[in-house]
Design brief:
34% of the residues lie in helices and 13% in strands. The protein is of the alpha/beta class. It has a 6-stranded mixed beta sheet with strand order 1-5-4-7-3-8. Strands 2-6 form a two-stranded antiparallel ribbon. α7 packs parallel to α9.
Amino acid sequence: MFETPSPNFDARDLPVTMLVLHYTGMQDAASAIARLTDPAAKVSAHYVVDEDGTIHRLVGEEHRAWHAGRSHWRGVTDINSASVGIEIVNPGHEWGYRAFPDAQIDALIPLVHDIKERHGITRGNVVGHSDIAPARKQDPGELFPWGKLARLRLALPRPARGLMDPEWSDGGFLLALERFGYDVADREAAVVAFQRRFRPEMIDGIIDGECRMLLLALLLPRPQGED
């Protein structure tokens, strides 16, 4: 791990209960790290994971890094105070979004595991930037291998067994989505974010039976996704 200090941090006001995954959304790692360590940019993250698996630590976990922006998850709005942020190098949707290399994910997985164990973070609080800011963000995006993390119990699985359609109205679905953790002020953005995370093969913003089944299963005490 390389120490690449950023001056962009301050004191936490909350204990760490979340882990937020981002993509850098810039043309290359050097550009992303330059921005995340530039005092004028006023953004940072705790870690950057390059495509070759190299990890840079920018901010110590005891400090509040500036990665989440205006965001909300499960009633928490100062997510920077309550989270560790990891930036995963990828050009993102603006610069040529692509699959995440195996070397990068192989480096990310033990990092996520260690952070999760260190702070006692639940699987439901390992989230993407789009989960906590659905109206503003798309990262880490539909190509991120959440399933690989879920199989290692590092994130929630996509429910796969015993699925039943509760036949909620659209309003009922949004109430359930809010209960699960999402900010539903922008209704379509919240549905898109949910689909990007749990049904990435079809992201259309339309509430359908499959969306209802997946969300109901996720709200059960034991997510029905493990093999």
